[in-house]
Amino acid sequence: MVRVVGIDHISLRVGDFEKSKAFYGKLMGFLGFKVLDEYPDAIGWTNGKTRLWIGAADDKGKKRKHRIGDIGFHHYAFELESRKDVDALEAFVKKLGAKIVDPAGEYYDDYYAVFFSRPRWAEARRHELGRAHRPCQAQEGG
User: Fold this and answer.
1) What local confidence, expressed as pLDDT, does residue 51 receive?
2) Could you give the count of Cα atoms lying within 13 Å of 76 in the half-sphere of its Cβ?
3) For a disulfide at 114, which of 2, 104, 125, 136, Cβ 3.0-4.6 Å?
């Protein structure tokens, strides 16, 4: 039987490639990612396990704005090591101009998360929310 061992990469299309590249470059650097490769209209980052790419939307794609509820990709989530890291991510993305949709908090018994959306110019097709979460089984003491 063929088995998936992970997701190789996620690729997002963005409306303003240069501004998005600057936003994601800062965000991915903050999260410990390094540039994997770069082309005139695309760039990818990796942390050795996960890869995220952004690329410029074509002219037709730039005319259509994403709507939550459309068919297709909804969001991506990064799992972080601690609640402190989730809180630090929230503070960092605020500085980058991201909109905090739901602040850092316990959303389920084992799910501490922050939900944010990128600035409008960084809008990617079929993607609206980013979130970071931490399983409670790795709870910090104190």
Assistant:
1) 95
2) 15
3) 104
Select from 135, 140, 124, 138 the least CA-distant residue to 27: 124
Hey, what domains does the chain have and what are their CATH numbers? 10-60+73-138 (3.10.180.10)
Of 127, 136, 114, the residue nearest 57 (C-alpha): 127
Query: For residue range 74-105, what is the model confidence (pLDDT) as tens digits?
Result: 788 888 988 999 999 999 999 998 888 889 99
CB 103 within 8 A of CB 114: yes
| Residue 67 reports pLDDT greater than 80 | no
